[in-house]
Request: fold
Amino acid sequence: MLDRVESVSRSFDTCLALGGGGAVSRALAERPDARAKIGKLIEADLSPGMAKLSAAPAIALDEECLPVKEASVDLVLSCLSLHWTNDLVGALIQINYALKPDGFFAGAVLGGATLTELRAALSAADEAADRAPARRVSPFADTIDMAGLVSRAGFTMPVSDVDRVTARYGNAFVLMRDLRKMGETNVLVERTRTPGTKTLFVSAAQAYAADHAGEDGKIPATFEVINFAGWAPHPDQPRPKRPGSATARLADALGVKENSAGDKAGG
Reply:
């Protein structure tokens, strides 16, 4: 996110950072170029305990009921928290509402390839026990979805890209312990209310190791991070031209010969 901030040729008087438990203020302490572009920083988190971890002024709030005045901030950063929202588009619309015209929004959210190995192992354990797979993991957006959702929320010039990080663990139980400490456990309303048995999780751990363990016995866990950005609308922003309105040929600009792709449809 701070790479995107540094790439923008302007400064931001007020920045609201959503989520991350103080991660933005800690990162800015090591990024003087990004810090020089941000005036007042306010960090926020859904958890009061996480908000207290910030080195900047911080508040506890819910992104789905954002208590921020219209057109009051210049920059919003969202650090790996929006996957917890029930209405992602609604949260994005409220972020757009809080931004001043031509304000900038950049964020990161966990994507659809996150924990694919664990999900497959749990499904295999359910199948081995002759039971329907339980819903244990929240739905995630993918790269194309995220750019589209940012656009649907009213942002202009939306972009998105993906980072994939692979962590390695001794076994599935160590991974699940880490997920619990991260607060990334199952909160789905439609989750099964019957606790999983020890046999189920032992079976899942065995399936995980059988399908994914390396030569050293450790298992990989994939975390997909979708990075995205967009701008609050402003009349002076560049707009894409209407298809077919070009007055110069790309072949001329590149200094190459143009080869026809065939007749136009209906010709």
In short: The mean pLDDT is 89. The longest helix spans residues 198-212.
